[in-house]
Amino acid sequence: MDRRALAKHIRSTGGPAGPDAVTAQRAGSRLAVGIIFATILIDFLGYSILIPVLPHFVGTLGVDAFGIGLITALYALGLVLFLPLWGWVSDRVGRRPVLLVSLLGTALSFLLLALATTLTQVLVARFLSGFFGASIGTAQAAMTDLTDDSSRAQGMGVIGAASGIGLVLGTALGGVLGGIDPAVPFYATAAVAALNFLLAAWALPESKGPVPAAAGFRGLARAMVPAPLWVLARAQGGNQRLYLYLFLHIFFAFSAIESMFPLFAAARFGWGEMQTGLFMATIAIVLGGSQGLIVGPLSRVWSETTMTSVGFGLTGISIAGLAVSPSIPVLCVSAVGVALGAGIAFPAFTSLFSKVCGTHETGAAMSRSQAMIHTGRALGAMCWGWVFASSGPGMPFALAGIALLAALGIFAAAPRVLLPQP
Question: Residue 407 has what pLDDT?
Answer without folding.
Answer: 93
